Amino acid sequence: MKAISVLPPLRGVWKAVNTPGDRIPSHGTHEFGQTFAYDFVRFKSLKHKGSFHTRSHFSYLMAQVKVSDCHGWGASIYSPIDGVVREVVNSVKERERLHLVSDLGLAIYNGLFYSFEKDEIHKIGGNYLIIEGSECCAWIAHAKTGSISPQVGDIVKAGEVVAKLGHSGNSTAPHLHFQLMERVDIRTAKGVPCCFTDYEVLSDGNWCSVTNGIPTSDQTIRYND
To answer: CATH number for the domain including 191?
Structure first.
C-alpha cells in the first residue's frame, strides 16, 4: 500500500520515538489501526534524546516532575489533512505529575482491562479527535484537557490548529500519538501508511530537506511552515 503524504502535525523540532520508519507495526500491534502510527516527543537536546523535561533525573524518579515542566506540553497540534471532525473526546483529566512506574502501570492496566463493549477508547487515547478526509482518517491522541477546538461535524483544513499536546490516556510523557487509518471506527480500523510532505532532518549539524519522508527514531526533525 502506498503511503499517503500529509502535513506534519507539529511545528518546530521533534523526535519520533515510535515510528514505522523503524518497525512495522510501530507500536507492536495492529489493533486500533496503529500499524503505521507515530509518537512524537520534544527533547531538550537536538543531537541526543536527553531529557523531555526541565527537572533532574532524581526529580523524575521521585514523581516531582509536573506536566508543565515538559518541553512539549501545550504545544499546538495541527490537522494533517482537510476533513470533517467525526469524534471528539475533550474532558479526560491529565495526570499533573509524571512517574515512570505509575504511568507504565496505568498503561499496562488499561491494556489488560480495556473493554470494547464499554467504548472506553479514551482510556487508551485520552483526549482525542478523529478527522475524516477524502483518502483516510487521522487520529490525534493524548491531547491536553479541554484543548481540542473543533467540534463534531466541523470542517478543518490541513495546517489548522486543532488541539494542544498533553498527557492523557496511555501516556508516559506528554507526547502526540498520530496515525492514519482507513475508517472512522478505531475499533475496527486498519492502519494506513503515512509520510510527511516536507520537513528537515538534522545531519552533521546541518538541516537537510526531506520530501514525502518517514522519520526514524534516530533523527531530529524540524518543520516550520
So the answer is: 2.70.70.10
Cβ-contact 138, 130 below 8 angstroms: yes
Number of domains observed in the structure of the chain: 1
pLDDT per position as a tens digit, 174-221: 999 999 999 999 989 999 999 999 999 999 989 999 999 999 999 999
80-131 pLDDT, tens digit per residue, is 999 999 999 999 999 888 876 666 666 666 666 665 555 678 888 999 999 9
Bond from prior residue into 25 cis (ω within 30 degrees of 0): yes
C-alpha cell at 29: 500491534
- Among 41, 13, 66, smallest CA distance to 165 is for 41
CA-to-CA distance for 42 and 176, rounded, in angstroms? 10
Q: Which residues of 132-141 are buried (b: 16+ CB within 10 A; e: fewer)?
A: bbeebbbbbb
Report the distance separating Cα 159 and Cα 112, nearest Å. 36
HSE-up of residue 54 (Cα within 13 Å, Cβ side): 8
158: which residues sit within 8 A by CB, 6+ positions away?
6, 7, 78, 79, 80, 81, 82
Q: 49, exposed or middle or buried, with CB in 10 Å at 0-12, 13-18, 19+?
A: middle
Query: 86: helix, coil or strand?
Result: strand
Q: Which three cell numbers stand for residue 86?
A: 467525526
By residue range, what is the domain housing residue 147? 4-223
Kind and range of the H or E run holding 123: helix 121-125
Beta-carbon count within 10 A of 107 CB: 16
